[in-house]
Amino acid sequence: MQKVRKAVIPVAGFGTRFLPASKATPKEMMPIVDKPIIQYIVEEAVDSGIETIIFVTGRHKRAIEDHFDYAPDLEETLERSGKKELVELIRRISNMAEFIYVRQKEQLGLGHAILTAEHAVGNEPFAVLLGDELIINEKNPGLKQLIDVYYKFGKSVVGTTEVPKEDTSKYGIVDGKLIEDGLRLVNYMVEKPSPEEAPSTSAIIGRYVLTPDIFDALKKTPFGKGGELQLTDALMILREKEVIYSKDIEGIRHDTGNKLGYIKAIVDFALEREDTKEFMKNLILEKAKKLNEK
Ligand code: UTP
Predict the structure, then answer these.
(1) Nearest-atom index, ligand 1, CA of 9
(2) Which residues contact 18 (CB under 8 A, 6 or more apart)?
(3) Residues of the chain with CATH 3.90.550.10
(4) Which residue among 8, 154, 159, 227 is least packed, with the fewest CB closer than 10 Å?
(5) Which amino acid residue places its CA nearest to atom 27 of ligand 1?
(6) Nearest-angstrom CA–CA distance, 100 and 51
(7) Residue range 6-255, CATH number
(8) In whole angstroms, what is the distance from residue 42 CA to residue 129 CA?
(9) Are strands 52-57 and 35-36 parallel, antiparallel or unpaired?
(10) Are 226 and 106 in contact (CB under 8 A)?
(11) Whole-structure pTM value
């Protein structure tokens, strides 16, 4: 079986839910404490065995390229002032993987973004990680859980989690036959159904392992919901040819693409980190006391 070596990370979207912050700065570069969101996602991919990262970018996304590039002037300045640890920290970012950038000229949807990466992927299985979904599991990274399923069956796998019924219209929803704990053989998938239409509450959460046959399926897929080329629709076309699995991912998930999810991620991380947790705990207690007094 071919190794899953490459990951596509689409980051070409406009990030309209984060305007005005995302007007000139990619939303993926916004920090969770002191590390940009996109670096957590690349680290998850690398910890899952990925060697090559293919970013699908657009205009105003230069900061992402700069972040994963060498920064000799910064390193020199840090070196001169004896900040060896920071030099290591900065250098490690650009050495984590091989980085490739592909430009999506028009933002025609997630499916279109994946199709844009076809030449960089070639004829091999590959992973997809959305640039605004964080999945934290230090022992068993989210993407690795899907890659392990791929190595067992050699077929495409989508990462899922259970969501409240009223939230189905925010996700691609999967209906499948349970074959093992958390693992399903997919029957049907639909993008952003209303709670009444949703066939289940099993939602796709921004992690995929795909066979290269997805590219042919994408070429046959008509533009769907929101006038966009939807990856979920292409997966339904792929399913006519080969089986697809869905796997519930174990870990803590943060949707950092919206304001509330972003704030929650920062608070959660700050409560976990050794250098911030005491401060954060005291701050929350102090604020809660003031709110109770009101
Ligand atoms: P989103 O639906 O979150 O879109 O895309 P968005 O533009 O980033 O944010 P909003 O909804 O306007 O606030 C999911 C992922 O797919 C990428 C986005 O960058 C994001 O990582 N994407 C989406 C593309 O790369 N190209 C597209 O045409 C659409």
Answers:
(1) 21
(2) 27, 30, 257, 258, 259, 262
(3) 6-255
(4) 227
(5) 109
(6) 11
(7) 3.90.550.10
(8) 9
(9) unpaired
(10) no
(11) 0.95
For ligand 1, atom 18: residue with the closest CA: 13
Ligand 1 pocket residues where CB is under 6 Å: 10-17, 56, 104, 107-110, 112-113, 130-132, 257
**CA–CA separation, 132 vs 256, rounded Å?**
5
How many Cβ atoms sit within 10 Å of the Cβ of residue 148? 15
Pocket test for ligand 1, best of 9, 132, 232 (most atoms within 8 A of CB): 132
Give residue-wise pLDDT tens across range 67-126. Answer: 999 999 999 999 999 999 999 999 999 999 999 999 999 999 999 999 999 999 999 999
Q: How many Å apart are CA 126 and CA 143, to the nearest integer?
A: 11
Distance between Cα 224 and ligand 1 center (Å): 15
List phi, psi (to 5°) of 197. Answer: -85, -20
